Amino acid sequence: MDAITTGLQMAMTWQALLAVAVGSVVGVIFGAIPGLTFSMALALLLPFTFGMAATPAIALLMGIYIGGMTGGSVSAILIGIPGTPSAAATVFDGYPMAMKGQASVALGGAVIASVFGGMFSLLVMMLLLEQLAGLAIKFGPVEIFALVLFGLSTICGLGERSIARGLVAGVLGLMLVIVGLDPIDGVARLTFGTVELQQGVNLLVGMIGLFAVPQVISTFTDFGRTEAKSVGTDVRASLPSWQQLKNRFGLMVRCSAIGTAIGAIPGTGGPIAAFLAYDHAKRFDPKPEAYGQGELSGVLAPESANNAVTGGTMIPLLSLGIPGDPATAVILGGMILHGLAPGPALFQTDLPAIYAIYIAIVISYIVTLIVQIWGIRWFVKVMSAPAHLMAVVIIVMCVLGSYAIRNSMFDVYLMGFMGLIGYVLQRLRIPIAPVVLGLVLGGTLENQYRTALILGEGSHQAFLDSTVAMGFFILMVLMIAMQLWSSRNKNTVPSTA
């Protein structure tokens, strides 16, 4: 109890409270603007913590991390562009909800699910930290490869009307990942002698192009030919009803568990958790055809999962000193700079600091909830702007965001090219979601597979010896079989026309 009391006193000083509040607001802003990720915000503000005490410094970093993860849903819902890779799955139903005049409900549902997922993962972290850390450390390259391959098996389910088109889109996403220098051998792949292509296709650049540019092109091609759509200008903060949330409580719990488990495995992250949660929600919903048309569950599921990742990633970070993604790597650096060395010894030498971090996470979620709920009435005003003017603003944001990622003008051209690909795919009725999934998972899939082969001296025996990997392979086969069976049943249903 003494450690808890001391940790509470450390976290409730005005300096720590101000730091976590500022961090949460900055995180939401950086998360909501496409191209300005919260990882970038962490890196930019880390030097400002050098002159701060340890607790306010860590509170600031945690606030940015949590605020940024929740902020990605704002642009995903309002303009159809994910602010962060973790919000990519939120676009599929969040943006259609906004177009139907339900922007405030989608935004409210997203932040409520985000806070629920984050608090769920924090509770799991506090109760099962040692057990989950021990399990996570057993995940080597073989197990992570199997997990990611299992995640890729959801491509068939994201193919909407045609599994074949979904597979085409997924393979295209995997092909785009190959472009650039080989991460192990340094050999140029599919660069066609272009030096700029050696840096590869950045995930955020690709997502901005695929989601935003086709929307802008469609807006201008339809301008003057079609009647402007009413997307709702009601600026009241119309949150989801208690009944809507109650009916989806079990879904949020399951998706939060998925996010916590994925986050606890180093090298995975929010995008994987969000796509797995979205596929889970769609697969077990009595009306899967509603997804992609503006279904609230399609917003709650990925947002619960990607925010649960925040607590999950803290499990290996605090207990083993292993960061799970770039953001937690920056947080790890900040902790070490301020004299906190994450690992088993931290729980014996500085237990009050652990409780102070827990409390800072709770406060950050409260601040983020207040900021986003208060801001809904202002956020949704975006939807009342004329579509062609919004398109101009969106393309300017896309150019600035694409350039800011790597300070490369080539990324701006690449974003435009990816946008043209996205527009052509839309015209051919090939879904964008599998392309994004391939971009998100392709790099991890290749790196973990090759690492496993290097460790096994070229042998695949390790894949057969791993019980966890074999479990994921079996699940993958079952999932593909279920999707093929479901697709076959849909195609054999007689038409009533």
Structural commentary:
- The structure is a single chain.
- This protein is an all-alpha fold and 497 residues long.
- The chain is built from 21 helices and two strands.
- The protein has a two-stranded antiparallel ribbon with strand order 1-2.
- Helix 2 (14-32) crosses helix 3 (38-45) and helix 9 packs across helix 18 (409-427).
Number of domains as seen in the coordinates: 1
Order of SSEs: HHHHHHHHEEHHHHHHHHHHHHH
- Taken from the alpha-carbon principal axes, the silhouette is globular
Helical element count? 21
Helix content: over 70%
The proportion of strand residues reads under 5%
End-to-end gap = 69 Å
**Strand arrangement, largest sheet?**
1-2
Gyration radius, in Å: 22 Å
Short structural summary:
By secondary structure, the chain is an all-alpha fold. Helices cover 70% and strands 1% of the residues.
